[in-house]
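**User:**
My hope is that you can spare some time for a protein that puzzles me. This is the protein in question:
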Amino acid sequence: MSADQLLITVFPTAEAQALQWWLFRDGVLETKGCDADPLLAAGLKLPSVEDEPVTHVALMPSALSVVRWHEPLEDLTEQQALAAARLVVQDNSLDRDNLHIAAVLDDAGQAVTVSVSKDVMAGGLLQLKALGIDPDAIIPVGWLVAHQEDEFVAADFGFETVLRGKQLIAPDEPSLRNHLTGDSPVTKLPEASVDRLLGDAAENGALNLRSGVFAKKVETSMTARQKRTLVWLAAAAVILSLLIPAVQLLKYYAATNEAEAAAMAIAEPVIGPVDTLEAADQKLNDRLISENRGNIAFSVPASALFSALQQNQTVSADRISYRRDGTVSATLSAVRNEEINPVLITIQKFGFVITATPRQDATGSAKADITVRAP
């Protein structure tokens, strides 16, 4: 993990505890202190105009955690090796049901575990939450110190001095140092070197106790900048949804105008100059009527009438006439009016407009005086 701002605090182990803290910006130590409210002391509770991200790392004291290295087992995957290491730690614990364990493979491919009481984890996280802190990682403090091949390294973090060996992380107790180090030399890191180790804490969080049941929950809230971006995206989506049909309407309008202009250009040599398409259509209809052509020609409605009569053999036409407006008049005869109705329905299906006046003649036969014209 990485962040522009990195806040490091001690993992609390007691109520109302003043916690040491360090604030880094872009990897450079900006300020540090020891306060009951690290966020307030570091100035991070003040509103940030730029909404700069802050990564928080809590350091677990070596006195409360145990780091172990485990002998590698052959023919095991990484996950299997880590699971086997956890089982070993549980089997060697007197309080296995109250033990929280994190595991990782080191650079040499060897499984490393860190274990701490679940009660310590739960209590410390509650105290940090009360301070408005939800740590991204909880790292054993000694894990930050790189080991040396032929010597031990002592690092004073203020709240605890840690002794680091090749496969050893433990509090540097004077009474136990000789027992732990033997004849090997011990080098103490200067304060500037310790500060550099802390500045790299976010990149050195592989052995992270913030795992399993204590894993950090995924944040669902949005920053002010994300909210502003979402509002702009929503506004852009609304504008686009309105622009798309508007552009389509403009295209349809332009295409309609082009089609009307083309139609008038074609009609003008035939009917003369006109101002609108409606006037051109009326002028063309008047010319067809005068020349007895088009849909008003006798053959058009008459063919529809004769075709309907052919489909209904019980009906006959007694009279048929034609007007110059394109209307065909006829008198249909049948035994009953019910026999004439199918003829009328068939003509309507052909798309013609009809009128019908039923009657009976002196013999009692059914008659219908009809007109048929093109729409």
In short: The chain has a mean pLDDT of 85. Residues 5-219 form a domain with the Nucleotidyltransferase; domain 5 fold (CATH 3.30.420.380). The first helix runs from residue 38 to 42. The CA atoms of residues 60 and 255 lie 74 Å apart.
